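Whiteboard transcription, Tuesday session. T.W. wrote the C-alpha cells on the left side:
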C-alpha cells in the first residue's frame, strides 16, 4: 500500500484546511447521509444494557427537523439565543444537530443573553 504523505514536515508546513464559507453539520452531513434511510448513525444502550436502540441518520435528521419546528412554533427565530437542557438520551443528538436554525454557542455563555429557556427533561 502506498501512502499519500511522503514527507511529514513538508505536509505539516503546507497543510491548509479547506473550510467552506457556509457550513452546517445538520444540513451538510446528517441530512446528506440521511438520504440512505438505512445508514446507521448510533447505537444506544441504557445503563443496564437491557434496552438497546439503533438510530439511522434519517431518524436523527427527522428528529432534528421536529425540534427545529418546535422552536419555530414557540416563536424562536434564526439568530435567537436559547438555552436547552436535556439529559444524555438518544434525542440529545437531535437537539445538538438542530443547529439548522443557527449556530450553537458555548455552554458557559452568559445566561442573561438567552431569551427562552427550554428544559426537555
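and on the right, the sequence the group agreed on:
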Amino acid at each position: 500500500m502506498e501512502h499519500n504523505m511522503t514527507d511529514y514536515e513538508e505536509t505539516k508546513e503546507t497543510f491548509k484546511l479547506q473550510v467552506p464559507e457556509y457550513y452546517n453539520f445538520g444540513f451538510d452531513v446528517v441530512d446528506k447521509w440521511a438520504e440512505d434511510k438505512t445508514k446507521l448513525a448510533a447505537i444506544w444502550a441504557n445503563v443496564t444494557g437491557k434496552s438497546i436502540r439503533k438510530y439511522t441518520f434519517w431518524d436523527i435528521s427527522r428528529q432534528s427537523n421536529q425540534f427545529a419546528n418546535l422552536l419555530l412554533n414557540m416563536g424562536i427565530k434564526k439568530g435567537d439565543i436559547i438555552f436547552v437542557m436535556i439529559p444524555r438520551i438518544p434525542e440529545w443528538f437531535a437537539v445538538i444537530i438542530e443547529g439548522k436554525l443557527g449556530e450553537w454557542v458555548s455552554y458557559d455563555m452568559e445566561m442573561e443573553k438567552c431569551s427562552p429557556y427550554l428544559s426537555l427533561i
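Someone added at the bottom: The radius of gyration is 19 Å.
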